[in-house]
């Protein structure tokens, strides 16, 4: 369960965030939502696929870390074994909340940082502090604010991106057949990818439309990222041996 | 080449007309290499004829029908007040309600998913034995995972499923008038069906006694090689014009009158049921169909056995005990019908679909399914010429006469195995002179063996053996248990265990109907 509270430097003065990357810390996720702004970094390490949001049924791009629920193949000796960690993971256990504030008498919504107090990452003993001695933000917290801000902007990009892909019929369901060294065969369903045939057959004006919207680069990065599925299989095989 | 079938004329709008037009158009309107359509489809309907508004429940086959016609599933939820139908629930059919009886004892389900294992395993003692040592679970609780979704008003799919995909098999409850409008719009705009709004004033035959054209009051004469009668109860072409005799079935199925009402929900959050409720009354039964904004409720009864006043009183009593309902301003609409069907459904170059072919009480919501099947067969078997039409007509008549027979006997089964004796209606229903011989024969067999595919001679029947099992064992019909091996007993225990687990799992992952329908309306269902 989660317990989100508004972050403040009085109640949360002594709190520390455990930055270990382990199952106990809740990092054993097998995929995480991503967005075009970070595709360049994500595609260097992970396959980017699409999944449907369980709550809305809408497509979202995800970075894949494993082949089954609870199995993150990048967790190694308390570290995340890759040079880049997607924003939706980096941000844990912080979220963006909205608060009504009065600005010159006009009510408006302001984005604020909230913290999930029930996250195993939150404690008093181990980790990095959030606030400095006299209440100022620690460098860690400053960075969290940047991550959340980037995330907020980045995720908003997904909607027009997905809308363009769906309207041009550029998504297709994909079933990943994974055969491991122990000869076990696994089938991964519920994922979607770019329909390359439809992409290649796009009319010129539609292609230019995608280009002008800035989506072409994202589409090809997704296609290129598929190669990392082999890396995941290798990691899984290595894990089976250990 | 005069006898080529190039022009099809559908007489009558409504769901029958538009489903037929849609299925025919989706298959046959593809253009030839020269750009002209293979066939022309024209639908003629009279202006301002209100749809009768029955047939608010569909079977799962409607999903395939709509997919074929090319309608997006999301549209149904946006424009037709649609909800999911997963079963029919029969309440008080077995015995008169006694106050101390629990809800489960008073009712049984006929779900759209097949019972697990009953077609492949020797069910032995597990099927017809209702002794306490065999557990207090009902037949569906033992063999079908779907009924738990009905018990809890849960949806048959998740928002991540694409249009028409499912976890548990389903059809729809929908507003028939709005549904008809959706189909009409799609047929005209997307499928190029010609639409003529005009009264038909005369029908003219050619020398071969085929219909040559119909005369309209504002659009002249409409010629065609095939005429499809979707004119509803008036049966303009088959009944009135060709005077094909009507086979009245009131001696078997007594109901001939219905009182229908619409009851809005209390508020936007009122739960939506997953199944049609059918509650037995003194001389008939009450349907209760939950759409998004309202329920459709109606009492269908035998005018020989009760009066309109008494029927209305029972209907009011039923409405009185409804929860989540706004009970103000209820206006009752009375409909009378002659249960039965025409002796022939396809005569010369005229075939009837929907009420123009026949009508029977909506106990198993078979009306729309019959329309779909008829239209599908006409579309699949569309004769190329008038010469071959005779053969198609003969086959069509054989198939649909059998369908009518099966529907009538299957509906009758619901009455025959009842133990109610609170009125002459229920007693008369068990009078052997009112029970068709073939049904009597099957009932004798079922005392010793469970219904199986051998009981149903035709291919692609409307009701498979499973449907008979649901009704018989839902009403605690006794099939004598027979010897079964230890091996079979083990298999059955496994089946029961699997179903039990699956029920729990489904109940965990599926949301209430209302929640999913709201999501579908907000986000839409994806096509892939």
List the helices and strands and how they pair.
The complex is a heterodimer of chains A (242) and B (528).
Chain A: E1 4-6, E2 16-17, E3 31-33, H1 36-42, E4 48-52, E5 59-64, E6 75-76, E7 79-80, H2 87-90, E8 94-103, E9 106-116, E10 122-123, E11 128-129, H3 139-167, E12 171-179, E13 185-194, H4 196-200, H5 204-212, H6 216-225, H7 228-241
Antiparallel strand pairs in A: 1-9, 2-10, 2-11, 3-5, 4-5, 6-7, 8-9, 12-13
Helix pairs in contact in A: 1-6
Chain B: E1 7-11, H1 14-28, E2 40-45, H2 61-69, H3 73-79, E3 83-85, E4 87-91, H4 103-106, E5 107-111, H5 125-128, H6 139-143, H7 147-151, E6 171-173, H8 176-189, E7 194-197, E8 200-205, E9 211-216, E10 221-223, E11 226-229, H9 236-241, E12 246-248, E13 257-264, E14 275-280, E15 284-290, E16 294-301, H10 308-320, E17 333-336, E18 340-342, E19 346-347, E20 350-352, E21 358-359, H11 366-380, H12 386-416, H13 424-429, H14 437-446, H15 465-474, H16 486-509, H17 513-523
Parallel strand pairs in B: 1-2, 1-11, 2-7, 4-14, 11-20
Antiparallel strand pairs in B: 3-6, 4-5, 8-9, 9-10, 12-18, 13-16, 13-17, 14-15, 15-16, 18-21, 19-20
Helix pairs in contact in B: 1-8, 1-11, 11-12
Tally of helical runs of chain A: 7
Oligomer: heterodimer
Q: Roughly what percent helix of chain A? A: 25-40%
Number of helices of chain B: 17
Number of strands of chain A: 13
Give the number of DSSP strands of chain B: 21
Number of spatially distinct domains of chain A: 1
The fraction of residues in strands of chain B falls at 15-25%
Q: Which outline of chain A best applies?
A: flat
Quick synopsis:
With 242 residues, chain A is α+β, with helices and mostly antiparallel strands.
Overview of the molecule:
The complex is a heterodimer of chains A (242) and B (528). By secondary structure, chain A is an alpha+beta fold. Chain A has helices at residues 36-42, 87-90, 139-167, 196-200, 204-212, 216-225, 228-241, and strands spanning 4-6, 16-17, 31-33, 48-52, 59-64, 75-76, 79-80, 94-103, 106-116, 122-123, 128-129, 171-179, 185-194. Chain A has one domain. Chain A has 7 helices and 13 strands. Chain A is flat, with a radius of gyration of 20 Å. With 528 residues, chain B is α+β, with helices and mostly antiparallel strands. Chain B is 36% helix and 18% strand. In chain B, the strands form 5 sheets. Chain B has a 7-stranded mixed beta sheet. A 6-stranded mixed beta sheet of chain B has the order 7-2-1-11-20-19. Chain B has a 3-stranded antiparallel beta sheet with strand order 8-9-10, with no helix packed on it. The mean pLDDT of chain B is 91. The A-B interface holds A 52-59, 166, 171-173, 190, 192 and B 158-161, 519, 522-526, 528.
């Amino acid at each position: 369960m989660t317990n989100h509270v508004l972050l403040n430097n009085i109640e949360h003065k002594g709190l520390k965030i455990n930055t270990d990357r382990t199952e106990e810390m809740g990092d054993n996720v097998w995929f995480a939502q991503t967005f075009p702004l970070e595709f360049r970094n994500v595609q260097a390490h992970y396959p980017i696929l699409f999944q449907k949001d369980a709550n809305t049924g809408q497509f979202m791009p995800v970075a894949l870390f494993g082949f089954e629920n609870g199995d993150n193949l990048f967790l190694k000796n308390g570290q995340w074994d890759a040079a880049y960690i997607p924003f939706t993971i980096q941000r844990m256990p912080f979220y963006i909340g909205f608060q009504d504030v009065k600005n010159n008498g006009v009510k408006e919504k302001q984005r604020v940082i909230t913290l999930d107090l029930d996250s195993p990452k939150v404690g008093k003993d181990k980790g990095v502090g959030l606030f400095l001695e006299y209440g100022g933000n620690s460098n860690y917290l400053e960075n969290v604010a940047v991550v959340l801000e980037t995330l907020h902007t980045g995720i908003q990009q997904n909607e027009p991106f997905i809308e363009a892909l769906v309207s041009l019929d550029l998504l297709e369901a994909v079933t990943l057949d994974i055969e491991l060294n122990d000869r076990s065969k696994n089938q991964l369903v519920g994922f979607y990818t770019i329909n390359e045939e439809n992409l290649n057959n796009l009319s010129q004006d539609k292609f230019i439309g995608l280009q002008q919207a800035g989506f072409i680069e994202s589409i090809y990065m997704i296609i290129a990222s598929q190669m990392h599925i082999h890396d995941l299989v290798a990691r899984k095989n290595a894990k089976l041996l250990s | 080449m005069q006898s080529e079938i190039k022009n099809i004329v559908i007489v009558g709008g409504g769901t029958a007309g538009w489903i037929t037009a849609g299925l025919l158009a989706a298959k046959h309107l593809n253009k030839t290499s020269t750009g002209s359509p293979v066939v022309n489809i024209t639908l003629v309907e009279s202006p301002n004829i209100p749809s009768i508004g029955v047939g608010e429940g569909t079977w799962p086959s409607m999903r395939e029908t709509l997919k074929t016609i090319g309608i997006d599933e999301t549209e149904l939820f946006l424009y037709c007040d649609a909800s999911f139908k997963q079963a029919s629930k029969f309440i008080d059919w077995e015995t008169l309600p006694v106050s101390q009886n629990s809800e489960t004892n008073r009712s049984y389900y006929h779900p759209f998913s097949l019972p697990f294992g009953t077609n492949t395993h020797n069910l032995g003692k597990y099927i017809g034995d209702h002794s306490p040592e065999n557990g207090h679970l009902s037949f569906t609780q033992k063999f079908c995972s779907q009924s738990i979704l009905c018990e809890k008003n849960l949806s048959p799919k998740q928002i991540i499923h694409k249009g028409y995909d499912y976890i548990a098999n389903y059809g729809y409850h929908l507003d028939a008038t709005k549904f008809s409008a959706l189909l009409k719009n799609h047929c005209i705009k997307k499928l190029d069906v010609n639409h003529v709004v005009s009264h038909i004033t005369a029908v003219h035959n050619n020398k071969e006694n085929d219909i040559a054209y119909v005369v309209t009051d504002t659009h002249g004469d409409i010629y065609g090689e095939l005429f499809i009668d979707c004119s509803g109860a008036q049966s303009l072409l088959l009944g009135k014009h060709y005077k094909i005799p009507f086979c009245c079935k009131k001696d078997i199925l007594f109901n001939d009158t219905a009182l229908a009402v619409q009851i809005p929900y209390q508020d936007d959050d009122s739960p939506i049921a997953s199944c049609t409720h059918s509650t037995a009354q003194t001389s008939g039964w009450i349907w209760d169909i939950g759409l998004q904004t309202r329920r459709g409720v109606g009492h269908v009864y035998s005018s020989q056995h009760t009066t309109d006043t008494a029927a209305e009183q029972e209907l009011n009593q039923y409405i009185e005990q409804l929860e989540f309902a706004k009970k103000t301003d209820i206006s009752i609409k009375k409909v009378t019908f002659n249960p039965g069907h025409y002796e022939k459904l396809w005569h010369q170059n005229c075939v009837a679909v929907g009420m123009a072919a026949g009508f029977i009480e909506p106990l198993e919501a078979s009306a729309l399914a019959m329309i779909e099947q008829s239209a599908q067969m006409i579309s699949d078997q569309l004769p190329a010429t008038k010469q071959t039409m005779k053969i198609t007509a003969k086959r069509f008549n054989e198939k649909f006469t059998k369908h009518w027979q099966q529907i009538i006997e299957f509906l009758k089964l619901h009455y025959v195995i009842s133990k109610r004796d609170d009125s002459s209606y229920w007693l008369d229903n068990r009078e052997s002179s009112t029970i068709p011989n073939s049904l009597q024969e099957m009932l004798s067999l079922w005392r010793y063996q469970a219904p199986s595919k051998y009981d149903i001679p035709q291919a692609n029947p409307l009701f498979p053996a499973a449907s008979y099992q649901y009704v018989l064992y839902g009403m605690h019909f006794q099939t004598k248990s027979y010897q079964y091996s230890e091996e079979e007993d083990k298999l059955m225990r496994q089946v029961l265990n699997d179903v039990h687990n699956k029920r729990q799992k489904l109940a965990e992952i599926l949301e209430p109907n209302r929640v999913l329908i709201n999501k579908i309306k907000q986000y839409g269902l994806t096509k892939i």
